[in-house]
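Audit log entry. Action: structure prediction of a protein-small molecule complex. Ligand: 2-oxoglutaric acid. The ligand was supplied as SMILES and no pocket hint was given, so placement is left entirely to the predictor. Protonation state taken as written. Sequence taken verbatim from the request; no trimming, no tag removal. Recorded inputs:
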Amino acid sequence: MDENVQDYLFDLQGYLVLENAISAEDLDEMNRWIDDHESYVEEPWSANDNPRERSRWIGNVETHTYNEENGVNFQNIIEGGTVFERLIDYPAWIDLVKKYIHSSVNGLSIHENFLNVRGPGGYIHIHCGGHVPLSYLTFRQNNTGEWMVGQINVLMALNDIAEGDGPTVLIPGSHKCTEIHPRLNVDGRGLVYDGVSGKPAGTAVAVKEMYLKAGDVLMFTDAITHGSAERTNPGYRRTVVYRYSPRYVRERFNYQISEELLGRLTPERRTIIEPIAPRRPLAV
Ligand SMILES: O=C(O)CCC(=O)C(=O)O
Ligand SMILES: [Fe+2]
């Protein structure tokens, strides 16, 4: 797409769809990873009495969910194999992400990375929007108008996502909306996340369902009002999400990167995963 058109659309809508962004080989490798770990989708949790310690670990990858209906997140998936390392600076989106985050001054990091598998009845509540005063939901420098996007979500479709499959929903342009979305409005107070209605984001006013083919990528500012529709079809929706931010934003769960992965990463990838090297006294 012509760069001016792309910039205009990202500014106006707050999202872009990159069709056919992921190679067939890489898609196959990720889908095979899920097939190989099906038992974790069936049984994501251990029997621990403490709900915070119920997760299961696959090496350095951890099972997780924000709410049961969101499905299973395989957090820290960059530790899951070389294909997930390639995604860190994937050619289809890395230059766009760098431009919009303005990495020449802000650097670049990944705030959260996970693979999500979501079955029938699964969905996400509506969240975010232009009304939210979260520091990483910036979009442009107010004074000069330069790009200064605080978080870009790169959501990768690993299988086709059509009507009934629980597509991501978003409200185009809502990253600039001052009014609070009605479902996030509690007596004039704006919520970040709808933890009250118990309804899928797909039923909220003004949302657009984003249909994707396997290999397509939906790239959106986290400031946009979004969520997902309920999956009503049988089977599972498979996605990967990498959230890019300036280097000042911490990794969401503070996963400690394994020495093995750090040793394998190219210098470019290592700078994204560990933008500020740990500083310790010299060993004596
Ligand atoms: O799962 C979805 O479709 C939406 C994901 C989402 O809310 C996010 O990546 O920030
Ligand atoms: Fe989100």
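Audit: result stored. Helices lie at 3-13, 24-36, 38-42, 82-86, 94-101, 103-106, 259-264, 267-273. The pocket of fe (ii) ion (ligand 2) is lined by residues 127, 226 (CB under 6 Å).
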